[in-house]
Amino acid sequence: MPSVILAVDDSASMRQMVRFTLESAGYEVVQAADGVEALDYAKAGNADLVLTDVNMPRMDGITLVRELRNLNNYKGIPILVLTTEAGQDTKMQGKQAGATGWIVKPFNPEQLLATINRVL
Amino acid sequence: MLPNSSSDNVAVAGNQTPAGNWSPQQQTARMLALCEAQMEAATQDSDAAVDTLINSFSDLMNLARELNAESAHSHGDTQTIKFASEEEMKQRYQKLMRQVNNAIIAFQFYDKLSQRLGHVRYSLSTLALFVCDRMNSQKPEHWDKLVSTLGRLYRTAEERAIFDSIAGTLAITPNSEKPKPISQTAAPEGSIELF
What is the pTM of this model? Predict the structure, then answer.
């Protein structure tokens, strides 16, 4: 059974790039366009890893991380933040919310896969 | 470039007080120069990404043509293809994957461009409202507040670098809270940190 990765980003082109990269490595990818959509999926189903953007409408990525960590089945799974946000302050907010790691866009496909393999 | 609004022209304004040559018009020009610099940088980065995409697709097309030509040469002799080029095929695959990876990185420019232009759009509309409000736009301390608020929009490393380089010229009052330069501590593109 391939690991399921929940990819959350409000940009359709980014979701496509992430999906292409992850599916080519054998992962199953579920997509969500914002934090609310991702949280709805998370409450109904399981993912083995979450990869989320920060700046999104309705619910941002930091809030999503916090909300996911409140769900029993998402307390221990890796949550990686994939964002253009490069400042230390936002990164610290992500860490405090419970993120596992921080990746600054644009991502390098090989490095992204290596990181996912490492934390899964 | 806006007349009389480049960072060279306004470089001394950081230490000036409203008693100097400060005017709402000068300040507006400086804010517009900041927006212009952000748009110019975003466009240049996008041009570079499009160049990468063109090169990647060009290389992919060449590889496809080579494979097609060799397959035509072999006249259906699959054994020839298999034994003559196993190592070469591996090298070609690696080359192909390198180009695909470069294209994936370059394709992400659109997301970043949208974000950066969104910040500029918000800055311009906020500035437009601000300058129309005569009560606000005549008070230097209100300009400081505006600069500080809009400065928080620019969060990518590139945006911060541009903002930091111009921000000194935007501070007006002696006690104004200078925007903190964070570009030196900002994580570079593609960086990965596990907590």
Answer: 0.73
Phi/psi of residue A108, nearest 5 degrees: -95, 125
Question: Does residue A96 sit at the B interface (CB-CB below 8 Å)?
Answer: no
Is there a domain that residue B83 lies in? yes
In angstroms, rounded to a whole number, what is the distance separating the alpha carbons of residues B151 and B174?
18
Q: What is the pLDDT of residues A54-102, one digit of tens each?
A: 989 999 999 999 999 999 999 999 999 999 887 888 899 999 999 999 9
Could A111 and B194 be called an inter-chain contact, meaning their C-beta atoms sit closer than 8 Å? no
- Of B93, B132, B139, B124, the C-alpha closest to B31 is B124
**Measured torsion, CA atoms of residues B123, B128, B132, B133, in degrees rounded to the nearest 10:** -20
Quote ipTM for the complex.
0.84
CB-based contact, A14 to chain B, within 8 Å: yes
Q: Which CATH superfamily is domain A4-119 in?
A: Response regulator (3.40.50.2300)
Q: Does the bond joining A57 to the residue before it have cis omega, within 30 degrees of 0?
A: no
DSSP string, A52-91: E-SS-SSS-HHHHHHHHHTSGGGSSS-EEEEES---HHHH
Q: Which residues of B touch A99 (CB under 8 A)?
A: 195
The total domain count for chain B is: 1
Query: For residue B186, which phi and psi values (nearest 5 degrees)?
Result: -70, 145
Task: Compare all CA atoms of chain A with the CA of B154 and give the residue at the minimum distance.
Answer: A85
What whole-number distance in Å separates Cα of residue B85 and Cα of residue B67? 11
